[in-house]
Amino acid sequence: RNLAMQLGVTSIPALFLFKNGQVVDKMVGARPKGDIAAFIKKHS
After folding, report:
1. Which of 19, 22, 25, 44 is deepest in the core (most CB within 10 A)?
2. Exposure string (b/e) for 4-38, b if CB count within 10 Å is 16 or more?
3. Domains of the chain: residue spans and CATH
């Protein structure tokens, strides 16, 4: 719960992408598999 508050999570699901310990992007809400794959690929 504390981490969710720190990250400002207001709804679920919430997917956060971290780089070097910092949030670089996030995706909130139910999404199709292709959207999630594109989200991850964008940062790889």
Report:
1. 25
2. eeeeeeeeeeeeeeeeeeeeeeeeeeeeeeeeeee
3. 2-42 (3.40.30.10)
